[in-house]
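Entry 14: structure prediction run for FlgN protein. Input pasted below.
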Amino acid sequence: MGIYSKQSPSARLLKVLEREQDTLTAGALDDIADALADKEEALQDFYAARDGRSEVELRNLRIKFEQNQQLYRAVQAGFQAANERLMGFLNPDLHLKTYNRSGSMGCFNRGLTDRKF
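Run finished. Output tokens:
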């Protein structure tokens, strides 16, 4: 339990969720695994101690969970955008179009970019 051991399960879970949010916001993806392990442990303690939860605590936890879920979605969207961008570099003919001499659209001619001057 470490630094969270003297807190109520609800307060501990909120602190863990805040740490997870800070990790996601900072883009420290190497630390996500540790944050998820702490979150799992905090959730187990939270579910084991079913009494003494106020509506305010539960609402704050729900809000923090929703905020973190939005951050995870943003991370996923960022990875998808980066993947699409990389695929564009690997397959330029799929994305780069140009007009030929007759004015019709055609694929970008890679031969022109490979010339050395």
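Notes: The radius of gyration is 24 Å. Will compare against the previous run tomorrow.
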